[in-house]
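Can't paste images in this forum, so I'm doing it all in text. The chain is below; anyone willing to post the predicted structure tokens underneath?
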Amino acid sequence: MERSDPRYQAYVEILKEELIPAMGCTEPIALAYAAARAREVLGALPESVQLQVSGSIIKNVKSVIVPNTGHLKGMEAAVAAGIIAGSADRELEVISEVSEDKKAAIRDYLQTVPISIQHIEQGHVFDIIVTERSGDSYAKVRIADFHTNICLIEKNGRVLYEKPLLNEEARRDSRVDRSLLNMKDIWDFAETADLQDVADLLERQIRYNNAIAEEGLLGDYGANIGRVLLSTYGNDVSIRAKAKAAAGSDARMNDSRLLARLRGRHEGLGAAGHHQLRQRQSGHHLLGAAH
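Text version of the structure:
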């Protein structure tokens, strides 16, 4: 594929859109992000929280460990973590730094503050509305369509920020056209691309994914599928590939302690690399490494 081919530049841009660093499973992080932003707008510790979410959020969060909470699971834990320990300016790294005192405070908050959950379907597969109340005041934040897309901030009946949500067709038009993706052209791009055009993206992808995979193989996470595969089926390259993918997933979904171990072992990762890391691939079109 020639560099002047429109598909070539489209594929490079798709990689940039899809390969975004995030900490842990991204749906609970998005909940924590919305909760942290609402708490910031409210200006007080919420006395009650209402969470309205689409079905996909319920499915993807209800049994997932929320990072840096001491292995707490579910939507309530994600919201509480964002309220107590979140730094909204850090977006998908909103709860990347949580002290032991804050972890204890998150548990206390869950025990003492009512957090209600309501299923909503408003035409958006990814939809989160967090409403936090303190006394007579409330703050509301809505995230829709993708993990950092805050589309509404409201306080005490006054809209502080709002942007219109796009319909399905317009949402597709706002990003690089995925209909260009097909196996023949993906293979052609992979074989002929100038690596300098994608080097930063792919080097980061390799570092982060390899780090979390190694952590999964060394630690005790979930069902330890990676180690089971290696011990049962041997160590050839196809088994190693499956084992690393499984181990990385187990570590990521089970609140790995990668933060402490990465310091000193992977100095080149930069600030984001000092947290438990994976590459979030926000769609289902994979040009890089798999989940």
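DSSP finds eleven helices and eight strands in the chain. Residues 259-291 have pLDDT under 50 and may be disordered.
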